[in-house]
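for the writeup, i need someone to sanity check this before i put it in the appendix. the sequnce is what the collaborator sent (i think, or maybe the updated version? ugh). structure was predicted straight from it, no edits. if anything looks off just tell me and ill rerun, i have time this weekend
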Amino acid sequence: MLSCAFRSLMIAADVLKSMHQRIGNKLRDCVMCLALDAFLTCLHVYYTTSAELSEKMGNAAQSESFKKTLDIVQSDVRTWLKMKMALCKSNELLPCLKAWNRVLSVVVPQGFIRDEFVRFISECLQEALLLKRSCEDELVKVYCQNQDLFCSAMLDVLSKHVFEFYDSHR
């Protein structure tokens, strides 16, 4: 099972890398999200199975190979989403935020992999929003009108950002 999970996560990582190198459109974004879900799910299975086996055998888990792959995938996803944010105009903010929300809503079982990935993407979103100061008014509007569209991790980041903006303009 461990080798199947590892092989599957490597295949999903290859699909992500291939799609990352293509010119963006909705189909590319959809495939990237599906490949990301597959990658993170396989990584979760690999990580938990590896941890269980290591615990039974009494030795440290061999985790360097999957950590390197995770770092590469996170970097590609960060680049993809930050570029999407950098290129979006004020009137395109909602679709852009929906893409971030889709990534933050990963369909991965609760656990270390999900928690770490969501934390990483949340931090990337915070950084991207700081660079998008020209759209602050639109962001407040989108946040107030569309809270029901966003997952809790997305709402945490947006709430913090919007309230900081509001406090700084009192």
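The mean pLDDT is 86. The first helix runs from residue 2 to 20.
thx in advance!!
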